[in-house]
Structures are given as C-alpha cells and as structure tokens.
Amino acid sequence: MTGHEQAFAFGGCVVGALVAYGSVRLSNAPSHRSVRESTVAAGATGDPAPDAGGSVDPAMVANANLTESLHQCSESLASLMGDKARLEQQLDAEHTSEADASRAARARRTARRDPSQSDWKQLASAGTIRYVLPCASFNPTPEVLDRLGLGQTDVPAIRSAFAAAREAAWAQIGPLCATALGGPADRVGLDSCAQVILDAERKTSPADADNAMRAVGAVKAGLADPSTLPANDPVGAAFLVFTGIAKDAESQLASVLGPDDARAAVFGDGSCSRMSEFTTSGPGSDL
Description:
Elements: H1 3-45, H2 58-113, H3 117-125, E1 128-133, H4 142-148, H5 155-181, H6 190-204, H7 206-220, H8 234-257, H9 259-267, E2 274-279, E3 285-286
Antiparallel strand pairs: 1-2, 2-3
Helix pairs in contact: 1-2, 3-7, 5-6, 5-8, 6-7, 6-8, 7-8, 8-9
C-alpha cells in the first residue's frame, strides 16, 4: 500500500466516523429541544425539573462512539502499515535472492569458460580440450556492457587486446593450418583451424592425435611441462596455442582495466569470445 493509499484509507475511516457522529447529533437534536422545552415548562408551572442524573446525554454517547471509531481507525492503519512493511521486506528478500542466484549463475558460466588447474585435471582425464577464442571485432551493445560490468570507454582497449592476441596466435597457427590444408590458410581463418588441424592428424594417426590432446590437458593441469609434448606434433602445438589465446588477451587487459574487468571482458557471460570444446576420438563443438 502506497502512502496515498494509506492516507485515503485513514481519511475514509475518519470521515465515516464523523458522518456517524453527525448523524447521531442530528437525530438527537429534536430530543434536546424537547428536553429543554419540558424543563422550561416545568419551571413555569412550578413542577420539579427532571433529574439530570437520570438521563443520558446523546452527544456524550456520540462523542464516545467517535473516539472509539477513531481508535479503531488508528489500529487498522497501523495493521495495514505493518503488513506493508512485511511485504516490502519479503519482496526485498526475494529480489536479493534472485540477484544472488543470477550472480552465482554468471560466476559458474564464467568459471566454465575459464578452467582452473583443478578443472583441467578433470578435462585431461576425459581427454577434453576447452578454450575461449576472443572474437575478431568487439562491438558490444550497451546491454552487454552493462551485464559485463564494463563501460563504453573500455571498448577500444578490449578490441585492441583481442586483435593483438589473435594476431600473435595466427603467427603460429597459420603455418600449421596451411600444412593441414595443403595450401594457404587465410581462407579458413583462425576460428576454424583447430578443427582442420585435428581432422588432418586423425586421418593419418588417430591415436597420436588423442595422445597429443591428453598431453596438452596434462600441461594445462600443471601435471606436465610443455617440453614433454611430442616434437613437431601439430595437434599438441596447435591446442597449446589455442588454450593460451584468451589468457594472453586477459593479461594485456589487466594492466589497463584491472584483473576483474579484464576477466569479465574475456570470459564473462555475454562477451563475444567463443568457447570451443574438443574430445579425443570425436568432433569438436562450439559452445
């Protein structure tokens, strides 16, 4: 109930009580005149006046009723205000709970896109490679920026970091992709080369491709050193690069935006970065 509604309810209660009081006064006005006329008449004839203590003044009764009505109005208004306060507390608690749940859900999605070493141990045991590839052009809507907790002034730095990370990765991935294709890789692009390289290796040695993926998982989990990866293995070399692109962009942004905003820009829910997942002896999937 709003303040206007509360005032209206209380005002209506008061008006009702006053109307009732006025009705009683009006209805008893003739009796007052009759009492006064009888008193005067009695005084003129010498008869004794009626005993004042033996009658009840209607005005006093009406006044008592008005007081009681106003008291009841006050109690009713206090009850309504108490209900309003409890309802507002309940709504605030629900909104807080919803906000907490939303933040928790976003945190889980971000964590899935940015695996910890513990996550990598589980991924490695399943023979799974997961990475986020920053988009080629960061052009977010105001709604996306708000969801990521970023501002329009952050966009140029993010766009620059994404481009630099992709360019550095392409310098290493491009030749591997060209070898797998048997020709220039520019027509395929960075986003598709992981699948191209993996498919080419699986055609010649599926077991080696799977072993290379598990080896990269072990490196990311901190269980092995990058030097343990098979020499000249295109799958191992490619996935080691792909799993480091997002971290490269995040590192560049951290010095400009700070660590929290940098992580949100790269891994946050709604960012244009694309997550891909590849599993041993199976096709990759974009998520």
